[in-house]
């Protein structure tokens, strides 16, 4: 597997490279020190797995979620592992909503990064034990009695979460854009959701998309 590493700290990149090289099935094909150099590198270097920090200084994509969103849109088949220090529950959920399969805490990367690489290569989610406990301790959404969506609302949410736009969904269903937008708004109201990121998180956690 071809691996690219992105982190703004040279010492961290050295450590990550050493861990990746322990896997005889992996080869580090490039390194980046920020979002801008990462996007440039991805444009010229084929990559199967991206191992990246979440928050790196940069000009065009300094926001971690925006960077991940652009990478996912441009390279949908590439697997992403975050190696990060953050432990904010909302951000963790939003990161998974962007299609990231692996999140590894920097404090545990030596033990867990090889496991994360194997998991995402098999298409399975991986999250560090410490971060998993954080998610379990703070779960504002009860799963015991989930809100009921209509069949049409369910399909609209599922398609939005899979990456389709409202216009594309309208075209596929042969409905108007206003109708799809109304169904999206109704679904969000039923779910108590206020923005697209939360909608994507709900869809993934509910098993609508994987």
Automatic annotation (TrEMBL):
One Pfam family from the record: Response_reg
Superkingdom in the source lineage: Bacteria
Residue numbers bearing the 4-aspartylphosphate modification: 53
Domain Response regulatory: 2-121
Chain ranges of the HTH luxR-type domain: 142-207
Keyword vocabulary terms for this entry: DNA-binding, Phosphoprotein
CDD domains to which the protein is assigned, alphabetical: LuxR_C_like, REC_NarL-like
Entry protein name: Response regulator transcription factor
């Amino acid at each position: 597997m071809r691996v690219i590493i992105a982190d703004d700290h040279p010492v961290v990149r050295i450590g990550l490279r050493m861990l990746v090289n322990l896997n005889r099935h992996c080869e580090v094909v490039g390194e980046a020190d920020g979002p801008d150099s990462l996007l440039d590198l991805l444009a010229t270097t084929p990559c199967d797995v991206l191992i990246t920090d979440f928050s790196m200084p940069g000009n065009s994509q300094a926001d971690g979620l925006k960077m991940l969103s652009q990478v996912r849109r441009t390279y949908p088949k590439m697997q992403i592992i975050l190696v990060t220090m953050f432990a904010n529950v909302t951000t963790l959920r939003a990161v998974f909503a962007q299609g990231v399969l692996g999140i590894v805490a920097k404090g545990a990367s030596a033990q867990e990064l090889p496991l994360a690489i194997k998991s995402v290569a098999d298409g399975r989610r991986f999250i560090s034990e410490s971060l998993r406990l954080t998610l379990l301790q703070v779960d504002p959404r009860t799963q015991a009695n989930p809100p009921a969506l209509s069949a049409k609302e369910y399909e609209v949410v599922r398609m939005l979460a899979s990456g389709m736009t409202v216009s594309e969904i309208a075209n596929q269903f042969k409905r108007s854009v206003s109708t799809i937008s109304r169904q999206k708004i109704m679904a969000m109201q039923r779910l108590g959701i206020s923005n697209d990121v939360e909608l994507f998180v709900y869809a993934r956690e509910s098993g609508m998309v994987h």
